[in-house]
Amino acid sequence: MVKQCDICGMTFEGSNNARYCCQECKKKAQIQRQKEYKAKRKIQKDLKARQSTVLDNNAKNAKRQGLSYGKMKAQEFARTIKVERPKKLDDYKHRKQQFDEIVEQNLANAN
Ligand SMILES: [Zn+2]
Asked: Tens digit of pLDDT for each residue in 34-73?
């Protein structure tokens, strides 16, 4: 059957599950997937670091200053972030953005 290559867009004759027109495109697709995986892992790592920073800070500050609303929210949010299972890269970018906003709010409230 006639298929369209996922990489270069060229049409080619291939079996049902064929996705690429040639070995070169197959290789490119593999590299692309690796890049995306690495990008996801990087964001995942970054989120985890931020998560523990916020949780640590809140734990330390809670005793000294009491929990402000902003801190409580940041802590709640940090707990809801699921960083174990990466899905779509965009989901992670969005989560990171949300997280950054809450951390910023948290810091603004703390000062
Ligand atoms: Zn191709």
From this structure: 999 999 899 888 888 888 877 777 666 665 656 665 666 6
Is 101:81 a contact under the CB 8 Å cutoff?
no
Ligand 1 centre to CA of 52 (Å) is: 43
Establish how many alpha carbons lie within 13 A of residue 30's alpha carbon, considering only the half-sphere containing its beta carbon: 6
Q: Could you tell me the two tokens for 90?
A: 């965009």
Q: How far is CA 33 from the centre of its chain?
A: 15
Phi/psi of residue 106, nearest 5 degrees: -60, -45
pTM over 0.85: no
Query: Residues with Cβ within 5 Å of ion ligand 1?
Result: 5, 7-8, 21, 25
CA of 91 to the centre of ligand 1 (A): 28
